Structures are given as C-alpha cells and as structure tokens.
Fold these 3 entries.
Entry 1:
Amino acid sequence: MKFCSNLSFMFTEGATILERYALAKDAGFKAVETGFPFGHTLEEVKKAKENAGVEQVLINIKTGDLSKGELGVTAVPGKEDEFKENLKVTIDYAKALGAKKIHIMAGKLDTVKTENWEIYENNLKYAAGLLKQDNLLGVIEPINQHSVPKYVLSDYGKAVDIIKRIDSPHIKLQLDIFHLQHICGDLTHNITNLMPYVGHVQIAQVPNRNEPDTAGEVNYPYILQHLEKCGYNDWVGLEYKPAAANKTGLKWIQNYGYSL
C-alpha cells in the first residue's frame, strides 16, 4: 500500500498550493494529488512540484467558477464547450506534472434530470477519446450529499452503469471510502464488487474526515488490508483534514504497519 498526500486538504495552514509541495516532501511523502491549482500558471506549479521532488498522481479538472460553488460542469446543460476547454487545460497541466489521472467532477445542480445524465455521459465519452491520445485516466467520484449538497453524482450504481456503457479503459471509478461509507456503507462487499471499475482510491475517517485512526465509523486497518486482498496496489490518496499537526497525525501509517 502506498499513500499520497492530497494538497487540497493537507498542509493548508498558511501555505499556498505551491508551498504545500515542499511541505509534503518534508513530511516524507513521495507523491501528491491536488485540486486544480487556480491562480498559478502551469510553469509555476511544475517548478514547485519538481523542486520538491515528488510525483504527481492525480489532478482535479478545472472546475469552473468556485465563487458560485461550481464543482465541474460535466453534467451542466449549455456548458459543453466550457467542459471541453476545462478538460484540455487540465490535460496540459497533467502532462506537465506527469500526472496520469484526472478527476472529472460532475458539478452541482438543484434538480437532476434525464438531460443532465445524457450530457454527463456524452461529455465523459468525449473525455475518454481525448484522454486516450495521451494515455491518461479519467476518474469519476460519487460524492455524498452531507459533505457536498446537490452534487450530481452520489450513486455508485449510476457511476458504474455509466462506466460500463462508455466501455473505455480511460474512464474509471474514484473510490473514496469516506464517501462510500456515507452513501451506502457495507464496505466489504461494496469494495469487492466495485474493484473491477476502480482507477483510484482515497480515504478519510467518517464522519469528521480526519485521520484514519481517529474516532469514527471505519476500521481502516481492516479496510486497507481488504483493498489489497481485492487486488488494489496503486496509490491511496489521503484526502482528510488533519486533526493533529500534519507530521504528528501521520503516525497512523507506521502504527498500521505501512511506510511512506
């Protein structure tokens, strides 16, 4: 099992996204994942990443107007051209950073209609074709409604059905155990059944989204072993909000028998 730091959640106090690369390296991480680095040029982010000497595993798609709460426009009518431009820009960043995975966020809507699912699937088909050109992987993630109300995709069955229909090795599932527990629980069987479609895994304790060894609903020593048993041997993103100081809070990794 190998772990990467999510720079959108970790090392955030008093640090820009550029500074967090070095902080992650200093804490012992060999790899990171990030949201889209708004406000920073491709060259600035690439330099920060290279100076830190870490691998970039994943980057989120450029999400739209954050001031309006937009979390992607993939399922939003009338924004197909914006989606395509956001994807192309994100691919440029991914290639420059050496990231092989892009989280394609669906967006938020007050009401989700049949039209939205059609637009979402068509945009993902387009993405699959574009990602194939550079051998990149697009991942889609169901997000629970407690954490992000009105997020379009919050159903694992729906996500898998879409992945099956698109039928491309360049569109897979991002399996965040934090969201899986919130949405449907039954972790052992759901992880087993979902694993054939999984392209990336993230973890955090439930319900407070802190370190895996904090008080909560999920038995992470068991879950991490089960992920390995199911054949997952890729990066696991630590998408949690540290309850302790970042370095102190990482003691769980060694306590669980792993290392960075």
Entry 2:
Amino acid sequence: MNESERSSFDFERRFDDSKALEWMQENWSKSFIFCGLYAALVFTGQYFMKERPKMNLRLPLMLWSFSLAIFSIMGAFRTGTHMLHVLVNSGFKESVCDTSFYRAPIIKFWAYAFAVSKGPELGDTVFIILRKQRLIFLHWYHHITVLLYSWFTYKDQVAGGSWFMTMNFMVHAIMYTYYAFRAAGWKIPRRFAMIITATQMIQMVMGLTVLGFVYRWIHDVNCPSNMDNIVWGSIMYLSYFVLFASFFYNTYFKDGSKSMESKGSKAE
C-alpha cells in the first residue's frame, strides 16, 4: 500500500471509479431531464408562493448550508492536497493536463461526488422560493449549466477537470460556511460577501485560462480533451464572469445602500 492509500479513508479506497464512470457515461444525458424539472420548479414554485406568506426555514437552511459547507471543505482539502502535490512535483502544465485524479486513490471518490453533488445543490433554490427572496437569473442559470457541464466533463474525463473541481470546492467551502452563519443569525460584515463574489469572478477567469491552456496543449498525448468541452466550457465561464461582474457592480456599488437581503445575495 503506497503513501496516498495509507492516508485515505476506507470509503475512498473502496470507491469503484470504473463503475462510477460507466454509470455517468450511460446516464449523463439525464442531467437535461433534471434541469428541465428544475426549471419547471423555479417558475411554478414562484407562482405557487405568490399569494402565500413566506416561510422562515432558518433552521433547515442553516443545516442545509452547514452540510454543504462540510462537504465542500472536505472536498477542497482532498483535491487541493492533490493539486498542490502535482504543481510542486510536476509543474503547472501537468496540473492542467492531469486526468489521473479521476482514478487517484484518495480523490477518485471526490471527483465523482463533485459531479453528482450538482444535483442536490439545486435544492438551494427551494429555500429562496419558499422564503420569497428575489430569485435572480444568475442563480438558476448557474445551477443548470454547472450541472450539465460537470456531468459532461466527468463522463469524458478530460484535462482541466482537476482545476475546475478544486476551485469550485474551495469557493463553495467559503460560500456555504458564510450562508450557514448567516442563517444562524450571525451579523457578518458586508465586505465578506464582496470577497466571496470577487473570489467567484477570479474562479471564472481561472476557468477560462485553464481552458485556454487545454486548447493550446490539446494535441499532446497526455492532455486529452475535445473541442466540444472547450467551447461549451469557455461559453459557460465567460457568461458566468459577465453575470457575476454585473451582480458585483449592481449590488455593491450601484445599489450599495441596499441590504444584501433585498438584492437576493445568493447567486450560487
């Protein structure tokens, strides 16, 4: 047993990545069905709540956010450790082109869990609808597209995925922790919300950068990808950046005197 296997948990060692890949390749297209049902929930849910009083749901929201925060923190630690090891020992190019994380002893579980988790994360929207907060386009557009792209990327196991996954885990670790404390009633300075949104924009810039390098190295034997993934990923990250930048400006500068609650701060 090598060092990485000794440092892994039993559920990580026992995870069958070959069966996970087989399932995703057979079922990834069902993500379109899930997104269709989700979109229907967005609009019918808002219509259902239109004449009804908003629900408090503070405790369920706190538990929900706390659970996703713990999951994201663990994922960020596991995948981040792997990424740091690759960067230090093999360099940036290998960190971009590396696809071994889909099968690596420790993080093969987290690679699959990351993709699958984009389904349950749709539940964020339920709280917004039932609490009658403002549901902005960025929120539900992001949930739909990230689910589709995550499943599409995992089933092809292309280069760049390690960066996408690690960055998202890290941002979500911060974001859901913030939401959990907010739901618990903590008064958190406004600048922390600004930092989270700024971090999300940096994530989008890095996503575009990584895809640019994947395109540059796509003909290398050890940097497998395809143009469909690069094109759709670039469109996704570029649209996210524009929408997050617009949200950042409108929330913190144009309408700076308004509270986060009135703007519907939960963009992701």
Entry 3:
Amino acid sequence: MAVGGRSATPEVIWARPERAGRGPRPAYSRADIAAAAVRIADADGLDAVSMRRVAAEIGCGTMSLYNYVPRKEDLYELMVDAVSAEYDLSGEPSGDWRAEMIALGRRARALMHRHPWLPGLMSPVYGFSPNVLRYLEYCLDCLEGLDAPPGTKLELVAMVNGMVTTYVTHELATAERARSLPWSQEQEDATRIAYLGRELATGKYPRMARAFAEGAGPVDPDGAFERMLERVVNSFT
C-alpha cells in the first residue's frame, strides 16, 4: 500500500518509471526536481533542502512532489546523480591508470568544492544511480592496465573517493570555522603556532618537534592533497 506516492516496501528510484506508459506527460521531470534541489543546497546547504522548499522552487504542492519523489532519500539520490553528470567522461583513457586515477581524484575534489554539500552524501546508498554507474564504469576502463581483480580495482576507486571526500570535508570545515571567527585566520594561526612552539620546546615531544621542524613553513593544501592522492594510488603498485 502506498501513501502519497510512497511505497510501503523498499524500492530504488531508478527502477520506478518516471512516467506511466499512458496518461498525460508529467508536469515536472526528475531532472527539474534534482536541479532545484541542487540550487537550494548550493546556496544554503543541505539542511535547507526539504520537500516543501523543493516543491516551492519548481512551483508545485508538497504532496504533489511525493508523486515524483517518494522519499527525501530519493531526492538526495537524484541530487548526487545530477552533479555526477558534471564529470567529463567523453575521452578515451590514456592507458596510464595511475595518471588517470590521480586526474579523477582532482576532478572529484573540484566537484565537491562546487557543491560543498556533496561530501555529506558520499555514501554507497547513493552510489548506483545512472551517472554514478557511468562514472564507475569509466574508472574501471581507466584501470584496464592494472593487473588486479575487478573487485580490487573497485576498492582502489573507493579508496581514492574516500580520501578525496575526507580531505575536502576538512577543507570545507576549516573554511567554515574561519568565517565564524571574531578575529582573522592569521591571528588564530599565529596564536596556535606560538602555543605549539612553547609546548614542543619543553622537550616532552621530541618526535613531534622533529616532525614540525622538518615541515616548517606555511601549509600548502594543494601540495598536501597531491601527495596524499599519489600515495593512495601508488599503494596499489
């Protein structure tokens, strides 16, 4: 039994026909609904995405929206699929699987910065939509030259995506915290570095002192990202 278009049993939104074989053409497409939800999330964050607000954005009633998207989780899945279409998968892989995976990691980072809400939805639950499946198929095509079972190749893709998601989540959280500070980020950094310097000077943390001495200087987020990404990819050699 369904209530407001919502099934009482598990279903996948992609297995549900977008329109019935007969009857009038739906007033809205899934692409329209996904685009509206993405606009809201890009502007105001994922918490701002609600069935009521998406319905208002496209100009329909909230209960009518449930006829197109039975659950909010389905709406999230539409959103992930919509932005996954931004990956350019038109070219043929170069044959250098390491370079290809590093390039895909860079593209994933850029995608998450364009849509800061995306890391919060990076879950296998939303991982099998049409555009995501095309992305995974492309990744496996890029990995043709890697002598490993298909399952191991998928693990590499998951490791790269997991590393990128974690890194971008940290970047976004750091930027958000900086915006909320009543002083400048430079003042905050200077105060914390001075405290750390005093603690390391006590001699209680010799290994940490050596590590920071070798890595003295401003943090380079792009350089750190590249090094981490290369280590993940090269771990499969």
